[in-house]
Amino acid sequence: xxxxxxxxxxxxxxxxxxxxxxxxxxxxxxxxxxxxxxxxxxxxxxxxxxxxxxxxxxxxxxxxxxxxxxxxxxxxxxxxxxxxxxxxxxxxxxxxxxxxxxxxxxxxxxxxxxxxxxxxxxxxxxxxxxxxxxxxxxxxxxxxxxxxxxxxxxxxxxxxxxxxxxxxxxxxxxxxxxxxxxxxxxxxxxxxxxxxxxxxxxxxxxxxxxxxxxxxxxxxxxxxxxxxxxxxxxxxxxxxxxxxxxxxxxxxxxxxxxxxxxxxxxxxxxxxxxxxxxxxxxxxxxxxxxxxxxxxxxxxxxxxxxxxxxxxxxxxxxxxxxxxxxxxxxxxxxxxxxxxxxxxxxxxxxxxxxxxxxxxxxxxxxxxxxxxxxxxxxxxxxxxxxxxxxxx
Length: 392
What we know:
Layout: H1 11-21, E1 31-34, H2 39-50, E2 54-56, E3 59-64, E4 67-76, E5 82-85, H3 87-93, H4 97-119, E6 131-135, H5 143-153, E7 159-166, H6 169-176, E8 181-186, H7 206-226, E9 239-240, H8 251-261, E10 265-270, E11 273-279, H9 280-289, E12 310-311, H10 316-326, E13 330-334, E14 340-345, H11 346-350, H12 355-365
Parallel strand pairs: 1-2, 1-6, 6-7, 7-8, 12-13
Antiparallel strand pairs: 3-4, 4-5, 9-14, 10-11, 13-14
């Protein structure tokens, strides 16, 4: 199996080795999620190395009758609990439907208990549009990791990556089908048990999980306090994967999306290329003035093709200054290839509560002067083309 000693001294050592293999993801501002309890010490080292936020993602195994260590499947947390059963094991054990339903309910209750124990009143990390790295201390059949990957995928991250120190080759192949990428440091053909690949595989207790999470959150708060907010890039705070409409969509669809998302404006795109913006004010004033019904008029009839926008690698301070100058609260974010990659709002920046943001918020909240245009968005630039640079 290995000639002299196991490849990992303990979980913290495995985490440091895993972090080195994941270093290329640091620039994507990832989130690190640990499968407790054993995955937390591993993920703690990954999060520290990548300077990434750390949280737990709670998954509970559904054990077989009289053999609780034999996993029939797993239940994962989420907006709705997510269950995954292993068909081969279920077929072999043949548990009753009543047993499966009762066991799933019991594990959902245990997830709620552990959520309170580990997080308290702290809100879980928002995963939508982010790079998410799901970490455990190793997997055998992969039941809990599969359930976790499917549940996290339902939250629509921009990129989903699993990361484990050790797993059998067939399990790694199965996990790759559920993720955008995966890292497994050691995948021996003769895999027998995760514990055999650690010199020290003592059980991780709740107290250690709570302590490591507290340490990670404290370090993150200190780092955020030290780092000058205005020097962060927009990519670090923007909302990725924004909802858009096309010029051919109806105004009725645009209005319904604004209502569902509780926003006053949407980007208008042809594919990934920004061609304009449509606001609730556009729909109300422009379409009504033209006597058009919302279910018949198209977005291109009411949108504006001059928009304030920024690049994702510009600093928060630079973008904030121009948002204040232009009196806008939300703008599209472009890649250097001039594709739409996100949206940034003053609310995203205001989460820091720094003095510059407070001053800008106060200024934009002041009633507009007569020469200023009304509405939430001010049209300042045409969307970028391949030939022109129209950012501020």
